[in-house]
Design goal:
mainly alpha
């Protein structure tokens, strides 16, 4: 979303105090609703002609509970990150990264990817802009990997759904994979494998950007605009993801899940990575599946490997990247990131 100027925002809409009061009231109502989701799910499930403790009853209760929970969390997280994004635009991100040719550029790019709410597909246009502005290729890959893999929306949902311990583990390893993968690819001198038209781009040096003269209410308006834009696009994937999670939760026996995604079989981690690649979803859609897998006893490392592959190695992202990278560079990108994901999965299966 392009940040509108202060003058444009002031031309329409309710008075400032209405915005502030309205958002405060909605936040309070959302908090109250979140605390009543379990009795609500039980009440709705009771209306169906199935026993509550049956497979169908468990699946229905999971779906009815998780849909409002994930949408409430998603709305709140997107709103907060949208407000933060008014201070931290893509253009400012590019300006910070331009000229970072030393080792500090890789963790800095990964950190900026963590802080900016871009999905894998929307990160590709930024990738082009970074390369054309002279940002080193390895640094841009650190950003490209970290943005969708450990962005604030997915990370916030993960904290809300599976707890701070798993979310922190995911953050540390996602950040490490993005940093190390960018460093390795930067040392390989792969610029020649960019598509010719990308290498020929020259947007000139990136200078200092003027500060936005936005009031706090203007930034609240930007946050609500982000909610309309992002939640409006991903809600269907949230429903699909929760539907899959409900089927796993209600119908897949724990013994079967442990056999497929347990920590004993050596092939479970690579199988989870391969299974995640063709899935077209995002963090909001895959996290309910992760929640259900963990609830059925799936190994933590295997589950995290599955989640990382869905978000960082999705087939739609590879199709878009084909317009920017030659096939050899895409293959190297897949190999380096997959190696990091596999290492994460095996490590956590070994120590937990």
């Amino acid at each position: 979303m392009t940040i509108e100027t202060h003058e444009t925002l002031q031309k329409h809409g309710a008075p400032d105090w209405v915005w502030g009061a309205g958002i405060a009231v909605l936040a309070g109502l959302g908090w109250l609703a979140y605390g009543q989701l379990i009795p609500f799910a039980n009440w709705v499930t009771a209306w169906f002609p199935v026993p509550r403790d049956s497979h169908s009853g468990e699946a229905i209760a999971f779906f009815v509970y998780d849909v409002p929970k994930v949408l409430l969390l998603l709305t709140g997280i997107v709103f907060v990150t949208g407000v933060l994004r008014s201070w931290f635009s893509p253009e400012k991100t590019r300006a910070i990264l331009a000229g970072k040719r030393q080792i500090v550029g890789y963790p800095l790019a990964a950190m900026l990817g963590v802080l900016t709410p871009f999905c894998s597909c929307s990160s590709v246009p930024l990738f082009i802009g970074f390369v054309s502005a002279g940002v080193p290729l390895g640094v841009t890959f650190s950003f490209l990997i970290a943005g969708p893999m450990v962005g604030p929306v997915g990370l916030g949902l993960l904290y809300g759904l599976v707890g701070w311990e798993i979310a922190t583990i995911y953050l540390v390893f996602g950040f490490s994979i993005a940093t190390l993968a960018g460093y390795v690819m930067g040392k390989m001198g792969l610029e020649r494998h960019l598509q010719d038209w990308v290498r020929e781009l020259n947007t000139g040096p990136v200078g200092n950007l003027p500060e936005e003269t936005l009031s706090f209410v203007d930034r609240l308006k930007i946050g609500t605009g982000q909610v309309r834009e992002i939640v409006g696009k991903v809600w269907i994937w949230v429903l699909i993801g929760i539907g899959i999670g409900a089927l796993i939760h209600g119908y897949v026996p724990e013994a079967v899940m442990l056999k497929i995604m347990g920590g004993e079989a050596w092939w479970s981690v690579p199988a989870a990575v391969v299974a995640g690649v063709p899935m077209y979803t995002n963090a909001a859609g895959v996290i309910p599946i992760v929640e259900a897998l963990l609830g059925k006893g799936a190994a933590l490392g295997t589950t995290l490997a599955f989640m990382m592959s869905v978000i960082a190695l999705s087939l739609p992202e590879m199709i878009i990247l084909k317009q920017v990278l030659k096939l050899r560079l895409i293959a190297i990108f897949l190999a380096v990131v997959s190696a990091g994901i596999l290492a994460t999965g095996y490590l956590f299966n070994a120590i937990l």
